[in-house]
Design a protein that fits this description.
The chain is of the alpha+beta class and 375 residues long. The chain has helices spanning 2-17, 26-61, 159-164; strands spanning 62-77, 80-97, 102-109, 114-122, 130-137, 179-189, 194-201, 216-223, 229-241, 257-270, 274-285, 288-302, 306-316, 324-337, 340-349, 352-353, 358-359, 363-374. The radius of gyration is 33 Å and the shape is globular.
């Protein structure tokens, strides 16, 4: 009996002294729970860090830009007067830099429709050759590739540029905002003094498939011999497909294909004291020839703050039908914050067009516009 008792006591002692059999104290249980809680809290923090890293990477590669232009316009034309508040443009675009050589841009005007969507890829190590595919501004004329936020006049481009580049005044082409679908090769050489662009476009405008078998070929050359001076020559050769009839060219009918060629040469000079640009333009639509030119500039009254604006513009929409128009603009603009400004301008025109006729008669406009832009 005594022997069995000694064996039982020895077994109990061994059991109690074994680490795996040691009973868990209250303090040990609390420590385990605290460790489990720390693990549970750490997991969301790690997820939050990952999400922040993703957002940071996206922010580094995607840049947002936008601007809005709105104002008031009073017009007196043909004995009738009109006045209206208007919201001309509300654009937002995103530029995604996918890799160093590859980028993508999407632009939408909330006042109208999708304007641009294209991808760029730089082929060479330097900027000598890049390719662009998608919907973007055509390279014809000095003014058309420029943003309205950089233009001096409220009604933006000259009469010739608006008509010949598809900005909206040519009924045969329709309102295309100077843009088209196609492919472009472009680049800069000679220490960025020479820039070239070769485009193959549908010739039908934005958000549309081509309506004929022909493509438009556009060539643009820019030479910058000294700082601030830019000399530009451009041409467009192709065939158009009429989306409407036109008072400027009554010989071309709806849905008719017609020869559409354009040429231009101009220059611009920008400095702190003043800016000036001018251009000569000529176009052929079928048998009709249009020709014109303009000079537009601004002089700083208070540098970076207040400018005086002036422009003279001549354009003959059809030389055979004597559809010539003279246009003059005079006004001021005040820059209240970086690329934000207020503009006030008087506009005179010696002729105007209706849906059925071209009228040689004076007409006047008083325009005011405010511009907000962020990069």
């Amino acid at each position: 009996m005594r022997k069995h008792s000694i064996l039982s006591i020895s077994a109990l002692f061994l059991l109690l002294s074994t680490p795996y059999a040691k009973a868990q104290t209250p303090s040990d249980s609390t420590a385990v729970k605290q460790q489990e809680t720390m693990i549970e809290e750490e997991e969301p923090k790690q997820e939050e860090k990952k999400a922040k890293k993703i957002i940071s990477n996206v922010a580094e590669h995607i840049k947002l830009h936008g601007y809005a232009q709105a104002g008031y316009t009073y017009k007196k034309c043909g004995g009738n007067s009109t006045n209206t508040f208007d919201l001309k443009r509300t654009l937002l675009w995103a530029n995604a830099q996918i890799i160093d050589r590859w980028s993508f841009l999407f632009m939408h005007d909330f006042n109208s429709q999708v304007q641009e969507f294209y991808t760029d890829f730089r082929i060479t190590r330097n900027n000598a050759l890049s390719v662009r595919f998608g919907q973007f501004k055509n390279a014809y004329t000095l003014e058309n590739p420029l943003s309205p936020t950089a233009m001096e006049t409220i009604d933006v481009y000259s009469e010739g540029v608006t008509f010949l580049s598809g900005c909206g005044s040519d009924p045969l082409f329709g309102v295309q905002y100077g843009r088209d679908l196609g492919l472009s090769l472009f680049g800069e050489t000679n220490d960025q003094k020479l820039r070239y662009e070769l485009q193959v476009m549908n010739g039908q405008g934005i958000n549309r498939k081509d309506k004929n078998k022909n493509k438009d070929l556009i060539l643009r050359l820019e030479w910058r011999p000294v700082k601030g001076l830019n000399i530009v020559a451009s041409s467009q050769l192709g065939k158009g497909h009429a989306v409407d009839s036109s008072v400027y060219n009554p010989d071309i009918q709806l849905n008719e294909d017609y020869t559409r060629n354009r040429y231009s040469a101009g220059l611009s000079y920008n400095s702190k004291a003043f800016n000036i640009h001018g251009e000569f333009l000529q176009g052929r639509d079928g048998d009709a020839v249009s020709i014109g030119g303009y000079v537009t500039g601004s002089v700083a009254i208070i540098p970076t703050k207040l400018d005086l604006i002036a422009s003279y513009d001549f354009f003959n929409f059809n030389r055979d039908l004597d559809m010539d128009q003279h246009k003059g603009v005079f006004g001021i603009q005040y820059w209240f914050y970086q690329k934000c400004r207020v503009q006030l301008q008087y506009v005179y025109k010696s002729a105007y067009a209706t849906a059925t006729e071209f009228v040689h008669d004076d007409n006047h406009a008083l325009m005011c516009q405010v511009q907000f832009r962020f990069n």
